Amino acid sequence: MRVVSGIQPTGNLHLGNYLGAIRNWVRMQDAMEDGSTCLFFLADLHAISMPHDPAELKSATLEMAAALVACGIDPARSVLFNQAQVPAHAELQWLLNGTARMGWLNRMTQWKDKAGKNREGQSVALFAYPVLQAADVLLYQATHVPVGEDQKQHLELARDIAQKFNNDFASEDAPVFTLPEPFIPPEAARIMSLRDGSAKMSKSDPSEMSRINLADDADAIMQKIRKAKTDPEPLPSEAAGLAGRPEALNLVSIYGAMAGRQVADVLAEFGGQGFGAFKPALGELLVETLAPISARFRELKQDREALDAILARGAARARELGRPTLDATYRALGLVRG
Ligand code: TYM
């Protein structure tokens, strides 16, 4: 089993990232058997697809590394690195650009959402972004890619690219690429904004009140939950009663995901109660669960030297693991390298 996944080092690690992806990274790492490897990386090359401040990207990359370690990614067991230190990601992307089709990229919902009506004004990187994402996982022959629901389409594209490349340039018994499987948690695949139950919780939402950051202190968490948008009805006692109530569903789902309980079970306890009772319980659960992570994060992010060393070691290992596939790709394409 080869597990590979990434996160963009823009802004803070938030509850959506944690419940949708990072918590599964840690679980998969902890369940790893001999001969299996987990690779987790900071997708800094992806972050330049949108306008960005170079100084901020640099500090956000180190902070995100600290956040991942604080969440339980163990650099001694998993390969933790940033993309920019492993040039094979960008190289493989170029090689795969020959296989990816414009039509496939045009259908990506993230491209459509981010570009909006101004497609002509977007960077080429934003359009080609899913090809780099395919390179990220195909480079390491990933079998499983733990992500939130919003990345499912990108993973399907990675499979399409792998399949077309194998068909066009490899023999059936010696494919160059493994087809990766997305691994999406059923219970927290899509955590929504605290201000709008129809928008996903996101780093790019301008409102800080829309998300819980893992580094938020107890006061900030309690305040954000207190102010979270809800409706005037009490909670239903069965899950079906949450239909058409996206904000209520989101808060109950967050509670369930944090407590390791089913939505039905949470409603069995809180059904019939108003948000005046439920919100403080949710806030306290979040504070209690996140406190050790944020304490560790604050400590780790001060130690620049240790973070640099972790990333350098991870990158060296990633370069080693990616080399055979990169070489095989060049060879399959007939490119002469001496
Ligand atoms: P990014 O940085 O936006 O998010 C990192 C991970 O967090 C998940 N996630 C969520 N899950 C549930 N609810 C939410 N509200 C929520 N918001 C984010 C994402 O699904 C993701 O798993 N393109 C990717 C980074 C990437 C990558 C890759 C991932 C680059 N290369 C290769 C996997 C494999 C991204 O921008 O994720």
From TrEMBL:
EC main group: ligase
GO molecular function: tryptophan-tRNA ligase activity
Annotated residues for binding of ATP: Q8, P9, T10, G16, N17, G148, E149, D150, I191, K200, M201, S202, K203, S204
Residues spanned by motif 'HIGH' region: 9-17
Keywords assigned by UniProt, alphabetized: Aminoacyl-tRNA synthetase, ATP-binding, Cytoplasm, Ligase, Nucleotide-binding, Protein biosynthesis
InterPro entries: aa-tRNA-synth_I_CS, aa-tRNA-synth_Ic, Rossmann-like_a/b/a_fold, Trp-tRNA-ligase, Trp-tRNA-ligase_bac-type, Trp-tRNA_synthetase
EC number: 6.1.1.2
Chain span(s) of sequence motif 'KMSKS' region: 200-204
Pfam families: tRNA-synt_1b
Catalytic activity: tRNA(Trp) + L-tryptophan + ATP = L-tryptophyl-tRNA(Trp) + AMP + diphosphate + H(+)
Subcellular location: Cytoplasm
Binding positions for L-tryptophan per the UniProt entry: D136
Organism domain of life: Bacteria
Entries under NCBIfam families matching the protein: trpS
Reported function: Catalyzes the attachment of tryptophan to tRNA(Trp).
Family: Belongs to the class-I aminoacyl-tRNA synthetase family.
Subunit structure: Homodimer.
Record's protein name: Tryptophan--tRNA ligase
Organism: Parerythrobacter lacustris
Native organism taxonomy: Bacteria, Pseudomonadati, Pseudomonadota, Alphaproteobacteria, Sphingomonadales
Gene: trpS
